[in-house]
TrEMBL record:
Limits of the Fe/B12 periplasmic-binding domain: 97-353
SUPFAM superfamilies documented for this protein: Helical backbone' metal receptor
One of the Pfam families matching this protein, by short name: Peripla_BP_2
Family: Belongs to the bacterial solute-binding protein 8 family.
Protein's name according to its UniProt entry: ABC transporter substrate-binding protein
Domain of life: Bacteria
């Protein structure tokens, strides 16, 4: 199963307003005092500060915009030759017309400050800055004709970008195609950012973005209450297609839940595959305190009330207490610059009583 992932660079107005929001949040976090606890990183945290971070993260995700690195946009230093995950060496000589064939990759390119060079988008690039760009995919299939009509100077793909014939056609037309490994866990975010930045000739910007994300993740994890370790089951559902799956080892959600101070219920129950069909037996073994879902997946089964009608759900602690957390499809497993916002929200919502 392939999980859902992730036009114009934001102007000074949105960037300034987000900076002000960040400053206000920092002041609020620093001002909160009574009843503080130490998070995993040893930083002071309070329920109030964790909730404030989650509220700010929720607003930013609702706006569906990105926050580029501060300062002047980096200037690519080219040519560069990089390793491609299809076993090739690829030389990039021009990054004036970039085409990312993956939403998560596009998020990284925009956040590096190169959004004004992006000429098209994949169907999974749903953030606001990309919406006006021409789409070059249908479902997840790439149209070589659509790609080549945009005259890209470099294409960024991943190993499951296809069909293979289309990728070959783009490469045969003389366009450098850099293939990346998919990001399936939190640790992949920095690796992917580094590789993209290197391929576009802006390695220093990649280091700066990784440092920013590392700081944001540490701040989010500091809000985990001491001694709290809820069991959370990630359910992937598409009611209209009768797809009902529970996540296990390698689902991607397991990595996020670990970072948020929780136990992945599927993995804990011995599910050693990324996804397993939901059964009453599997749910009984998992016994989640909280259920995590993608928003559209929850909607597809009729919301919380519909979810509780799925056999076995209502009998779990999560079902009995109606503890369900949902996050937007294109963000939850995007593993990119907005992932720290996901952790902010998870830390706040899964540790509530």
């Amino acid at each position: 199963m392939r999980a859902s992932r992730g036009g114009r660079p934001p102007g000074r107005g949105p960037r300034r307003s987000l900076a002000v929001l960040g400053l206000a949040l920092a002041l609020l976090t620093g001002a909160c005092a009574g009843g503080s606890t130490k998070g995993p990183g040893g930083a002071e945290a309070t329920p109030e500060s964790a909730s404030a971070r989650a509220a700010a993260a929720g607003k930013q995700l609702a706006a569906n915009t990105l926050v580029p690195l501060e300062g002047k946009a980096p200037a690519p230093e080219l040519p560069v030759t990089v390793d491609s995950s299809d076993g090739r060496k690829v030389t990039v000589t021009d990054a004036s017309r970039i085409l990312p064939l993956n939403g998560g990759v596009a998020e990284i390119v925009f956040t590096l400050g190169l959004g004004d060079r992006v000429v098209g988008r994949d169907i999974t690039a749903t953030f606001e800055e990309a919406k006006k760009l021409p789409q070059v995919t249908k479902a997840h299939d790439v149209s070589a004709e659509n790609v080549l009509s945009l005259r890209p100077t470099v294409v960024l793909a991943d190993t499951d970008t296809g069909p293979k014939e289309a990728v070959d056609q783009i490469r045969d037309a003389g366009v450098p195609v850099v293939v990346l490994d998919p990001a399936t866990k939190l640790a992949d975010v920095t690796t992917r950012t580094t590789r993209i930045a290197e391929a576009l000739g802006v390695p220093a910007a990649g280091k700066a973005l990784n440092a920013r994300m590392s700081s944001e993740l540490a701040a989010a994890r500091a809000g985990v209450p001491a001694g709290s370790k809820p069991k959370v089951a990630f359910l992937y559902m598409r009611g209209s297609a009768a797809v009902y799956l529970i996540g296990g080892k390698g689902s991607g959600a397991d990595s996020l839940l670990e970072a948020a101070g929780a136990v992945d219920a599927g993995t804990d129950a011995g599910l050693d595959r990324p996804f397993t069909p939901i059964t009453t037996e599997a749910l009984a073994a998992a016994q989640p305190d909280v259920i995590l879902m993608m928003t559209k997946g929850l909607e597809s089964v009729g919301g919380l009330d519909g979810l509780l009608k799925v056999p076995g759900i209502a009998q779990t602690p999560a079902g009995m207490n109606r503890r369900v957390v949902d996050l937007e499809d294109g963000v939850l497993l995007s593993f990119g610059p907005r992932t720290p916002l996901v952790i902010d929200i998870l830390v706040d919502r899964i540790h509530q009583g």
